[in-house]
Amino acid sequence: xxxxxxxxxxxxxxxxxxxxxxxxxxxxxxxxxxxxxxxxxxxxxxxxxxxxxxxxxxxxxxxxxxxxxxxxxxxxxxxxxxxxxxxxxxxxxxxxxxxxxxxxxxxxxxxx
Length: 112
Prior knowledge:
mainly alpha, disordered C terminus, 112 residues, disordered N terminus, two-stranded antiparallel ribbon
């Protein structure tokens, strides 16, 4: 947030930056809703060249609801994916976080 490069009166820089973060307008939101965030792949996955990424036609919400849908099949496929475990098996996941018994990769991803 401290990307302002021109001189401002004391205290003005922080207030101005926080105004952007807290602004309710979706066009200025730094944490957009998952259904507004398009998922993309690397440029070479569709024949593009950097910086032109390859949009998949999905949003973050689509991935969360479809690719990480709570199903018996995903229970087996996504057994070691912390996002899925936290979403679909929240109580067990939290118990393992608290007990410190998650696999090493999960502990790094979920540090407080």
